[in-house]
Hints:
Low-confidence stretches: 1-21
Mean pLDDT: 87
Strand content: over 45%
Largest sheet: 10 strands, antiparallel, barrel
Number of helices: 1
Amino acid sequence: MRTLLTLFIFLCAYSNPVLKASKITKDVNFSWLLGSWQRVNEQEGIKTFEHWKQASKGLYIGMGCTLKERDTIWKEIIKLRRVEQNWNFEVKGKGETQPTIFALTKIENESFICENPENEFPKMISYQKSNAGLSAMISGGGPDIVFEFKRID
């Protein structure tokens, strides 16, 4: 768990908040991401959750947290935000003043990839919907970490 927490700290601490997103010209729909999810490949005694909602046509907001027993040991706010013709994936951990910004570089049916080559770790974040649930991965600049989620709502 300490490794996971360290990786998330790096995710948020080493960022370039002015990175521009890649131009995505087609309509983007992240409705498959909406709802509440629980990580199924977590260490025993630890529970990790993500909850996503759509705030507007160009803004999706996610909240991720990790619990150990009744204590919150990690919390982050995630935003998928449209900025003109571009989309950003913004991650902001508790106590941070600026989000780490990743450019949406690829989108397909129920999957996307975001990248920030300036970030120490991770450099890439991907999400993909499957029949089993939701899979997210952080990679680049360190070990690949896969987060497997099941829908809980």
